Amino acid sequence: MIGILDYGVGNLFSVKKAFDYLGEPSVVIQSASEFDALDRLLIPGVGAFGDAMELLHDRDLVTAIRAFAASNRPLLGICLGMQLLFDASSEHGDHAGLGLLPGRVERIPGPYKIPQVGWNQLQPARRHALTLSLEGEDYAYFVHSYYVRVADDSILLATAEYGVDVPAIVAQNNIVGMQFHPEKSSNTGLKLLKQFAVFPDQSGVARDEKTITTSARGGVERVHFARD
Amino acid sequence: MITKRIIPCFDVRNGRVVKFQSFFANERDAGDPVILAKRYDEQGADELVMLDISATHEGRRTMLDIVSETAAQVFIPFTVGGGIGSVAEVRDVLRAGADKVSLNSAAVKNPALISESAKRFGSQCVVIALDAKRRTEQSWDVLVSGGRINTGKSAVAWAKEAEARGAGELLVTSFDEDGQRDGYDLALTRAIADAVSIPVIASGGAGCAEHFYDVFTAGGADAALAASIFHFAETSVTEVKKNLRERGVSIR
């Protein structure tokens, strides 16, 4: 069961709908007492870093998330949820993060418009069980003004060029982050979510494709239509 | 590299798509907004805009069901607009599953609606729709109530104010070009794109693939919205994107 953490920010509905569509059981949870029943945890989020950390603290979720991470079960942060996984952020002041991944969150330096809004191309950085579904020309939907300066390049699975190389997908052991919104990135995003749902299964894509194409939930249509 | 977005737009009245018959394979599907949204996703649309033109309370409730059903089946960003006038209505539409709301007349009447919505739900989901009518060669007035009332407000000044109040994007429609299929108002789009730093979605006037190229280059738009050019199936999102790609525009 995938737990989608509702801590008072962001649209959980879309992520939940995406897992429903993929036929992956998921549940929206609000408290740490529900973590035990999960085999995966997803932290969504939009808004400001400091506010989000405060909400996590208020709900006694910070220690619980760290314990979940230490239990080696897969943990995925999306958008702000990914940024929270890192050490700290300079968004409106200086705020400590969850400290599960090495790096700092800073404002995108330009020269482009801030926020970055729209579809950007994912540049694979290294092969990984999570990104086997990427085909080389994949785009994802981003909305953000801050990006992560990772302290260790080996956690980068994919980046996106926006004046700087924005870390788009990061992973270290069971901790995963996606800066874009996979639940809003059409087939590319759905496949990545599917992959997270089976992660760390190394058989990856073959099984993923099969699961999606044999799904009775309309996955066939989505995966097999030709884009051009 | 970030890509330019192509955004089909369609009107929904009492839960049915208006004027889109040519798009549906059979009568059973005719007018179903969710099916239309899926088709656009398949064609490579980067985003969708649905405008609710229902005049009744019942029609507006039906729209929330449509939004919810679309969110369950279409996994690209979509914006819902049309008659949204309060923070409570913004909340209802977002809760139903829309990613963004577009605010038009109500925001002009009550600009605090922009800041309140942005504070509560985040700027990323607040799109300000601005209908502009040319006054002189380089100035435009803001219209409200579907173009019926000219507020006399400067479009460029209003765009800046909307940005300052927390709008995440601007949807700029040229009242003069809308429906003409003669191309977007490039001067208007450029004037607003130069005045703000948030993304500008150009709207009104698309008649062929060339017009999208012009608005992305000369107009400086980040995204282009179109309705009739797609809904009469004269061209498709796929064809427009192919054309743009061949001409070197960064496209998904």
UniProtKB/TrEMBL annotation, chain B:
Q: Which UniProt keywords apply?
A: Amino-acid biosynthesis, Cytoplasm, Histidine biosynthesis, Lyase
- Stated EC number for the protein is 4.3.2.10
Pathway(s) served? Amino-acid biosynthesis; L-histidine biosynthesis; L-histidine from 5-phospho-alpha-D-ribose 1-diphosphate: step 5/9
- MF terms (GO), sorted A to Z: imidazoleglycerol-phosphate synthase activity; lyase activity
Residues of the active site are D11, D131
What InterPro entries does this protein's entry cite? Answer: Aldolase_TIM (IPR013785), His_biosynth (IPR006062), HisF (IPR004651), IGPS_HisA/HisF (IPR050064), RibuloseP-bd_barrel (IPR011060)
Q: Which NCBIfam families match?
A: hisF
PANTHER family attached to this UniProt entry: IMIDAZOLE GLYCEROL PHOSPHATE SYNTHASE HISHF, IMIDAZOLE GLYCEROL PHOSPHATE SYNTHASE SUBUNIT HISF/H IGP SYNTHASE SUBUNIT HISF/H
Specify the protein name.
Answer: Imidazole glycerol phosphate synthase subunit HisF
Question: From which source organism is this entry?
Answer: Ferroacidibacillus organovorans
